[in-house]
């Protein structure tokens, strides 16, 4: 539509500058010291939604960080699209590995570098600007609702309550999310599933205080050594997870789906080169795409204990800690896997040490069918602007709230992501390509148009 | 000797206050930000040695922290005692576990709480005050030399050069060190050996950057998992160290020595209760005292990698690190064990990751005979003030410079320590009992007297 193109071309710089402003707010949900930044970020989004044309925008407090809600109802008889996204970001550490400040966005080689550039401020803001495009040109074909939360990166602990208490407010015909990736601008793809998550923290205590490793070493269990032995035992020689019952509920992907996955363009050599590794690692019997898509995993996200400063300290520490998370596939459930994992760790803990293991957060896996109206509208929108049909793929990440959305609101979720796997999500130097940002803004209005036409 | 007793009784408070002043200087050798404190501590010791009666005191610069040297030569034909000690201390972390500031000494229940209270400022200062006692009462029976270094806690990297270049200055008939422990004031003991040390740091690199654990987890080796597997493999199910060649040079203790060790008072129940553990851990076939005395060990002193802050971050980290140290017994050598350890780690490192392993510092084990003039003088001194013969024991800790002292200076080293194993050396809330401090000051002059009489 020429009218959209013209509006977007004219406002290109404004679309970018507004995003950069949003990226300057360090809205790290995991850190209590950023509480004020979270509020500031919610306020900024409220203003932008109002300017874009929303009739009603509210900041709803929760037990944690606030939810931003906005809507424009053009005609109650028309279909309603609920756009979900999040304004919170992952912590930026390790800071020393960033080439520029995580909250001082810079543009280099056509890419925006900042924490949240892609995940998810950049992607959620495409929807605000696509909405503005339709609203300012009087071409909005659907009702539109925005639900932008501030706790996605910490497992959405308060969103379920908000959704349950506001079903009428959130009533819609489809939920549209841009928080996933494309294979590339040349090879568009759409996620048809996201994995679930169980994230726990483990504390192993040996002696009741830090000890001199010469005086006591060799006679008292070292909690680091014990924790290492426990961690080492969680994968066998084929990199299968050894926890009894872990795979019990896994729905194996069909031969047809695995065949389709194998056809997606993938170069193991390029993948290894990009990551700087000589050999890939993973569960025997599965390809790389299968390992990150259709298989559950167990990863160490952090470990610490003893002296970790400069130089040497001959200490036998009292405690060692680890953060461990599992990605889950259909039909695994977060509660069950968390329980299995914690119980297993307690069971294998030797009598020399004490162990504490606690849930940080969890979320269920989610799959969306490829024959729904929403999926078809999104695929057609992508075909319109990319000139190619998107390939359906399974995403490796998690959007914990998806399963609950479908259960409570009774509608399907469509993942129309415009990021790239190489965007350094959750890592130093997160980036978002300007080309992907603008491509998203260009594509999204077609989704609304095609969804309304069905 | 009544004259000593009187002098010490009269100066009791002064002896304590001067030590507290010394403890207020945060002389942490491992941390470059304490360079000025190291110099200040050396200056303070210089002043105190001069006040105590030394004829000559010098601060010698080294490539690292300075060495403090002091002497009083009463008669070149009399025997000379070289007192060795160190004014540097271990880092104080974890700070949150201290009940009072590590460099704000407090006295509670008859104990001085501060970093370095026992190791080694408290113990080295006993010698300064014992020297003052003899000097001010004109009863010094030997020549005395002080060599107080500032790098013991980082492996004495520059002391060997200093010793080799100053053999004439350091010429003596015996070296006396108080940097070890007694079983208790009721059961005096003397160390007849200290263990050697190999301290290394390991860096394991997986992918070239931190990754999103959902997008990449399961397909790329996690350096924490790999490091844990490597650490786990270093001890077998009997807690023997699995590194090929590790035990090759170990001189097994004789049945007679093991029998003698078994006779030293030791309550496993009290030991476990003091440490707060339900079960002890250690090499099969050896008792607790053997494990910490006559056997080599491998301990994890620190581990870190990934996200270690508050809350959750779903990262698959690029790197994981560990600090590992081995305690060595006769005739193991630090160079050989370090080489064996590093080569073994490189050999077992799987092809998915890169590994770097580097020496922090090392030191040789050392044994002293119980029939030397020095040992006999020390035993007699202890018998005089404790009313009991000391039990010879093997210490678990390390004083890296001992083997070099004997090689370069050609004299035996005597360990006359007054600390307790429960002094929380290298740990939060390090302490030194006032009773032990004063007992040391009382006992040391007898050593000089008896050594001169031989």
From TrEMBL, chains A, B:
Query: What EC designation does it have?
Result: 3.4.13.-
Note the Pfam families from the entry.
M20_dimer (PF07687), Peptidase_M20 (PF01546)
The entry lists its GO molecular-function terms as: dipeptidase activity
Keywords attached to this Swiss-Prot or TrEMBL record, sorted alphabetically, are: Dipeptidase, Hydrolase, Metal-binding, Protease
What is the enzyme's class at the highest EC level? hydrolase
Highest taxon above the source species: Bacteria
Cited InterPro entries: Cyt/Met_Dipeptidase, Peptidase_M20, Peptidase_M20_dimer
* Residue span, Peptidase M20 dimerisation domain: 200-352
Tell me the protein's name: Dipeptidase
């Amino acid at each position: 539509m020429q009218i959209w193109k013209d509006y977007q071309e004219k406002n290109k710089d404004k679309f970018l500058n507004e995003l950069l402003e949003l990226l300057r707010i360090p809205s790290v949900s995991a850190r209590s010291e950023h509480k004020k930044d979270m509020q500031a970020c919610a306020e900024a989004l409220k203003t932008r939604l109002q300017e874009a044309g929303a009739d009603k925008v509210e900041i709803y407090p929760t037990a944690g960080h606030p939810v931003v809600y906005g809507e424009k109802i053009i005609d109650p008889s028309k279909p309603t699209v609920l756009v979900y996204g999040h304004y919170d970001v992952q912590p930026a550490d390790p800071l020393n590995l960033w080439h520029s400040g995580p909250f001082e966005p810079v543009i280099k080689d056509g890419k925006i570098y900042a924490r949240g550039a892609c995940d998810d401020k950049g992607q959620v803001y495409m929807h605000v600007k696509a909405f503005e495009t339709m609203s300012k040109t009087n071409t909005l074909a659907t009702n539109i609702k925005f639900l932008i939360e501030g706790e996605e990166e910490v497992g959405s602990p308060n969103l379920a309550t908000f959704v349950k208490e506001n079903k009428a407010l959130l009533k819609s015909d489809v939920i549209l999310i841009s928080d996933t990736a494309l294979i590339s601008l040349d090879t568009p793809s759409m996620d048809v599933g996201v994995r679930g998550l169980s994230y726990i923290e483990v504390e192993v205590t040996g002696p009741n205080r830090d000890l001199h490793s010469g005086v006591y070493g060799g006679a008292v269990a070292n909690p680091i050594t014990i924790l290492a032995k426990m961690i080492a035992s969680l994968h066998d020689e084929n990199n299968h997870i050894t926890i009894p019952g872990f795979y019990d509920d896994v729905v194996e992907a069909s031969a047809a789906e695995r065949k389709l996955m194998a056809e997606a363009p993938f170069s193991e050599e390029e993948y290894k080169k990009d990551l700087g590794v000589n050999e890939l690692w993973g569960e025997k019997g599965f390809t790389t795409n299968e390992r990150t898509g259709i298989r559950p995993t167990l990863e160490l996200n952090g470990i610490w204990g003893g002296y970790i400063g400069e130089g040497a300290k001959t200490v036998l520490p009292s405690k060692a800690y680890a953060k461990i998370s599992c990605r889950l596939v259909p039909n695994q459930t977060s509660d069950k896997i968390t329980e299995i994992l914690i119980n297993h760790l307690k069971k294998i803990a030797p009598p020399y040490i004490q162990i504490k293991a606690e849930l940080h957060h969890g979320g269920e896996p989610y799959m969306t069918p490829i024959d729904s109206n929403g999926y078809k509208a999104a695929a057609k929108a992508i075909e319109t602007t990319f000139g190619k049909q998107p390939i359906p793929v399974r995403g490796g990440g998690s959007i914990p709230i998806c399963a609950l959305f479908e259960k409570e609101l009774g509608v399907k979720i469509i993942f129309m992501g415009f990021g790239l796997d190489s965007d350094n999500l959750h890592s130093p130097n997160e980036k978002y390509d300007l080309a992907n940002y603008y491509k998203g803004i260009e594509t999204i209005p077609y989704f609304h148009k095609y969804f309304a036409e069905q």
